[in-house]
Amino acid sequence: MSNRALSRRDFIKLAGAGGITAAAGMAGCAAPKPSRSGDAARVVVVGGGPGGASAAKYLKLYEPNLEVTLIEPKRAYYTCFGGNWYLGGFRDLETLRHDYRALEYRHGVQVIHDKAIDLDAPGYQVKTENSGDISYDKLVVAPGIDFDYGDIEGLSSADVEAIPHAWEGGKQYAVLRSQLLEMEDGGTFILCAPPDPFRCPPGPYERASLVAHYLKENKPKSKILVLDEKDSFSKQGLFEEAWKELYGDMIEWVPAEEGGSLSRVSVSERKVFTDGGEQEHKGDVINVVPPQKAGRIAQQMGLTDADGWCPIDQVTFESKIHDDVYVIGDACVADPMPKSGHVANNHAKVVAVSIINSLMGREQMEPTTVNTCYSLAAPDWGFTVAHVFEHRDGEIHSVEGAGGLSPADESRGFRAREADFAPAWYAAITKDIFR
After folding, report:
1. Which of 173, 252, 295, 310 is deepest in the core (most CB within 10 A)?
2. Strand order in 67-71's β-sheet?
3. What highest taxon heads this organism's lineage (predicted)?
4. Would you give the DSSP letter of residue 316?
5. Is the dihedral of CA 354, 355, 356, 359 positive or negative?
6. Domain 150-290 CATH superfamily
């Protein structure tokens, strides 16, 4: 790298999957300042999801002289995005599985499969369950989400086998899929959508669509009831257009103002109660997506505020609570950016540059970042939203007139073409994260 901060133009070139070669080429002569121990500067990343894995990879791509360590207990990561395609019956769960071998053997990241349990911020150490204390010069925390069952009477995290949330990849999706397979034709699938903010804002409505696709093909007498904590939702017009065209009256959406807000669950009776307990709904399969907050390790590390999320400097992603600790992905307060896998991947690239500039004593950049989100209402019916963001004056701002939403009232051919783009986007983003 040269002795200047990465320019905005440089960063945009590097921000996408096509920027990997360019990123490697820009790393070069100047090495980061040595750590307090006198060795190469060490960056530790906690969490191996889209944000953490991307951060570890891009730190090494942007500056190979860094020592980068990723702490992640799982040997493989199942993406949450793409999981609804599995529930709809047209994607195998194992195709959503990604490991960390490329990070280790291609990019030189040290991967420790262990659980981070606490932070000694003054001592610059991460405490782990089995690997002792791990020292860092800079720390990136990508903890994902945790679930808050506190306001749902009758339901706790112990009930996830009976009433799954399926809002984390892997096993929970398999549990929900199994329940759908076992449901009788003519049964009712109830989906309780969470309040804002939460991971993947269009996710519950894509799920309702693709469960409807599965039921229409296999159990056409069945019904779907979406009970919502909100009065509107992401891509609402596009979803409702698809529901009417594809599924008729199979899907019913009940907003909060009409009694959709969840109050209580009876696990044994398979019932949910809404509207302050006034309305009762019985389901054969019940999928409650609870309110969310930053992942548990962020709470244990003291990185969260009273709302349960992690406040950050929105230009550099450095924590407002601990120096030299950075928080990215779903856990951080990065409004107006949504909580999505694509956004976490962009956060990672910003934080990689922020850390390298800080270690080298360079001026920080004010980047431009993006989000792209594909949703499927059926295997051949898709639409998308794209956003562009500026990071300036310590805050994130949407770029007026940039990005956009798929148009309404388009042809089936148009929707089919957008549906074809979705798996290509999935392949590109997961390659950028894990390969």
Report:
1. 310
2. 110-112, 67-71, 42-46, 138-141, 325-327
3. Bacteria
4. T
5. positive
6. FAD/NAD(P)-binding domain (3.50.50.60)
